[in-house]
DNA sequence: AAGACCCCCAACCGCTAACTT
DNA sequence: CAAGTTAGCGGTTGGGGGTCT
């Protein structure tokens, strides 16, 4: 028996999601939490395959996602992490908790690849045009030296990237490894208007719903206890959340210029946040920890000698096959 | 003003690792 | 342990919006 399709091809809707579908999905996940995606289309009545629902959630509806306007620091980090990890977008995304792997992948393919290519063309001295590392034939000794150098540079670059911007009170695993690192960037970029729109949409929708206000503790109880406690339709779950609570629950605020809301979002979405803030992060990137484990070990190894042994001068003077020209 | 072209990104597809029975 | 099932990942595509001519 072959592998069955993830969903019946007949009657499955494809293409862009409508706000209504988003609402249904969000309200369902709000009630049941992410996971068990196979049950989502059945239980919600959405004419979407489970995969599509998961993708929609992880790439778009998931709280705390920052979209567009990649900062220099993020760019830098992506470039170096890509050099270090290759096209392991999920792993790279785990270091940028506010970005989805899809987003990073898209950004890499549409912006960074081009940028690096251009730069490499400018400084081409035997390196090829396609990647960071020359594919020209080299001797084994050269290759080993090169590998060592690449690892060395990647170490430094990662340390550097992680040390860029820092809310002062955040204590992260990275901060232990790399003393300069104190957390993810809190930049001026805004969340996706589309996410906002959904929040607004929900806001309006909820205003019309029979139930209105609930206490924050109720919202928090959802955060702390995502398992449904009793009977309810998705509609009930949604109506049990006030717009404000929804904002706080989802870690964003409809006023995107609010520094406070951004701070909250960043904090809540940070992978290194406290357990009580991390329901969605834990669930939306369930294998993040898994994928991070070897990386963390790697980082430890990277930073143990990298951060201590190398001065900042080296960072400046040590281009990552031409990428340093970017900065 | 309008058609052609380009770019971006949301979503899809296929593969595979991980989990369950 | 093997077969079946599910979730997640990375590559790719296509539609829509923006820019150019």
Automatic annotation (TrEMBL):
Residues 209-240, 260-288 are annotated as: Disordered. Residues 9-65, 66-116 form the HTH myb-type domain. Residues 260-281 have a biased composition (Polar residues). PANTHER family: MYB FAMILY TRANSCRIPTION FACTOR (PTHR10641), TRANSCRIPTION FACTOR MYB96 (PTHR10641:SF1320). It comes from the Eukaryota. Pfam families: Myb_DNA-binding. Its main location: nucleus. It is found in: Nucleus. GO terms for cellular component: nucleus. The keyword DNA-binding applies. GO terms for biological process: response to auxin. InterPro entries: Homeodomain-like_sf, Myb_dom, Myb_TF_plants, SANT/Myb. Residues 9-61, 62-112 form the Myb-like domain. Coiled coil: none annotated. The gene is MYB27. This is MYB transcription factor. Signal peptide: none annotated. Gene3D superfamilies: Homeodomain-like. It comes from Paeonia suffruticosa (Tree peony). Keywords: DNA-binding, Nucleus, Repeat. GO terms for molecular function: DNA binding.
